[in-house]
Amino acid sequence: MIKKGIRRQIVLHYFLVVFIALLLVEVIFLIAIRTYYYDTVYNHVSNHIRLSNEFYQPFRVTSSDNVNQLSEMVRHFELYNTELQILNTSGQVLTTSAGFDLEQTIKTSDVTQALAGDTSRWVGKQPGTGQIVMAVSQSIQNGFDQTYILRYVTSLDLINDRLLKLTLFAVSIGAAVLAIVLAFSIGLANSIVKPINNITTVSTQMAKGKFNVRIKGDYKYELGELSSTLNYMAQEIVRSNQVKDDFISSISHELRTPLTSIKGWSETLDSGGYDPEETKIGMQIIAKETDRLIGLVEELLDFSKLQQNEMKLVKGIVNLRELLQEIILNLWAKAEKKGVTIKLESEEKPIIYGDANRLKQVFLNIVDNAVKFSHENGVINLYFTMEEKFVTVTVRDYGIGISEEHLRRVKDRFFQVNPLNGGTGLGLAITQQLVELHGGTMEMESELGHGTSVIVKLPLPEGKIPVAGGLENGEEGMPGPTV
């Protein structure tokens, strides 16, 4: 007995479908065979009656001698291996080809319909013997306008024996087919259930935290996709855990360094006895490290808000050219130390509708990365490309570049190409999500040793744009800033 489960359901469904189909086919087949045999007998007798009647009519007995008439009719109409009964219109048997005087009245349906002028048949048990017979009856006219009923009675035992053998043969074939289907359905069910059981076992281990296990087996179709997906999920969880551990280690180091400096200088200044110049240097270091801590904490808070969809944008009119010029000024000192030149090459003045502070955060992070990874005395190019509904801002540097392997993951959260450079690994992840909140996209193209291009595409506002002193290219304004 197959226990409850998918295996039993598959086997039962296949078995029932094939069983019902076979049953219908065999019933229809046996009914058709039975009808064919019975119709063959009926047609044979009917044709005999028609041909005998055509031959007999010109030589009808005109004598009033009833006995001679009946004998003549039996001689002309009798059929081999069939009993011929001649009945009067009341259904009484007058004579038979078997020579027995039955002295009975027959009221079966074939006799009744024969009186109405039709040739009809009746199948049933012969009174007295209980034998299954077919009776075919038809009325004919004899001399002196006398009407008789010719009733042929033939046994169906031989035909029924053949039908029984055909039935047993069909049932045997059906049983063999069902046995094959049962074996096939069990094999099919096992081919589905065994992989599912394997996947379930491995999934249970994964649920217990054993992400080093993998589903083994070359499964096809949906089961193969499911096993591949679960293996990929486990791989990603392991990678995510590793990234999380690396992030905790990195952020702990990032927090410990400024805190150590702050604590050290605080204790030093608290002890007193230092000249004003050293005190000033100490306070500058404390202020610098404090700003660094604030930046780290704000980055973590921004990421948390983005993950929980709690980031709110305060939208307004933003002049991208002015925004980028401000960013260049903010990073001028850092770029100057490496001899890096930042150039804004385009003359366009694209106006968009967005959150100026968040967009500044986006481009500040991108340009800052470009400065960080540029070679000394390098160049960073910034330029716009205007389209019908979008403006594209490209930041291109010619620095160290990013390998193809790292380029696919560089926008992942907590990922750092070089952990020794410091940071949380959240900068580009936050930047991309902020761009997407503005309805834009961010793409990166890079070649190791040849630099990197960051391409930010932002939507242009529909309609006219309000600017200082009036409207930009029209008279209709846009709604005010929204949150």
TrEMBL record:
Pfam family, one: HisKA
Record-linked InterPro entries: HAMP_dom, HATPase_C_sf, HATPase_dom, His_kinase_dom, HisK_dim/P_dom, HisK_dim/P_sf, HssS/ArlS-like, Sig_transdc_His_kin-like_C
Segments crossing the lipid bilayer: 12-37, 166-189
Reactions mediated catalytically: ATP + protein L-histidine = ADP + protein N-phospho-L-histidine
EC numbers on record: 2.7.13.3
This protein's UniProt keywords: ATP-binding, Cell membrane, Kinase, Membrane, Nucleotide-binding, Phosphoprotein, Transferase, Transmembrane, Transmembrane helix, Two-component regulatory system
Gene Ontology MF terms: ATP binding; phosphorelay sensor kinase activity
Top-rank taxon: Bacteria
UniProt subcellular location: Cell membrane
SMART domains: HAMP, HATPase_c, HisKA
Topological type in the membrane: Multi-pass membrane protein
Record domain Histidine kinase: where: 250-462
Gene Ontology cellular-component terms listed: plasma membrane
PANTHER family on file: SENSOR HISTIDINE KINASE CPXA
Protein name: histidine kinase
